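Input structure tokens:
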């Protein structure tokens, strides 16, 4: 008779802290009317599972939270159309999933917050607002209860946050972020909606605050869905959307 050694700690201290932080952030977004959009190009059942959890109240009489699984072949295009400023995109995927990397890269221009659940090698720092990760290179991790436990806890802890209404309101304080001393505008990510006409240098772009016109004469040749860094009403560089997607 043989036995399989099971880790004694399914959710370690670091992951517990990450779950608590992600749950509070998610509860705050739901509190202000967000929808949770779930993608998992590699493991579609996980996308459905996460969405189903959130639309079911954790206890009778509790809130059903709006959550939708996006499972079309092109999740980037689907998320682009679905997402509104203030929403949340949750991905269940490995760190090398090119569609998820591209989605996460664009979310600041869509005004969405992000959560990335996965295992193995971690995604690059800053790829998502919240990363919930199993530190294991076992290829069977996505099929284990330990993996599913992460998003079950995320669901339950989000409801726990609703039991403490005082934590749901985010106090707006004076920003201490460094900005341009001349125009008080920081560099922002933007996605091109409509390129300029032949007799114009102004493109319509989408940012986290909505759509706005920007001058693209410094970068030139922009196309729909290009990512730009904009500053003071002008595009100052084009972002390489293929970097890190090999």
């Amino acid at each position: 008779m043989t036995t399989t050694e099971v880790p004694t700690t399914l959710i370690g201290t670091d992951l517990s802290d990450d779950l608590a932080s992600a749950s509070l952030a998610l509860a705050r977004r739901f509190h202000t009317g967000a929808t949770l959009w779930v993608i998992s190009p590699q493991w579609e059942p996980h996308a459905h599972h996460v969405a189903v959890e959130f639309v079911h109240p954790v206890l009778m009489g509790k809130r059903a939270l709006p959550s939708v699984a996006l499972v079309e072949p092109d999740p980037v295009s689907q998320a682009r159309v679905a997402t509104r400023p203030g929403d949340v995109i949750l991905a269940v995927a490995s760190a090398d999933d090119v569609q998820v990397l591209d989605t996460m890269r664009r979310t600041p221009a869509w005004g969405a917050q992000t959560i990335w659940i996965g295992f193995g090698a971690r995604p690059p720092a800053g790829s998502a607002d919240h990363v919930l990760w199993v530190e294991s290179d076992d290829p069977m991790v996505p099929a284990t209860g330990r993996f599913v436990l992460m998003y079950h806890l995320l669901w339950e802890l989000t409801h726990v946050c609703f039991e403490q209404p005082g934590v749901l309101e985010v106090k707006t304080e004076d920003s201490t972020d460094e900005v341009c001393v001349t125009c008080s505008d920081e560099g922002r990510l933007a996605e091109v909606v409509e390129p300029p006409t032949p007799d114009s240098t102004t493109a319509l772009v989408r940012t986290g605050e909505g759509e706005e016109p920007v001058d693209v004469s410094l970068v030139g040749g922009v196309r729909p869905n290009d990512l730009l860094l904009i500053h003071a009403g002008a595009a100052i560089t084009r972002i390489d959307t293929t970097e890190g997607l090999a």
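Residues 163 and 224 are 43 Å apart (CA to CA). The beta strands are 36-39, 67-69, 88-92, 113-119, 130-134, 188-194, 202-207, 210-215, 227-231, 234-239.
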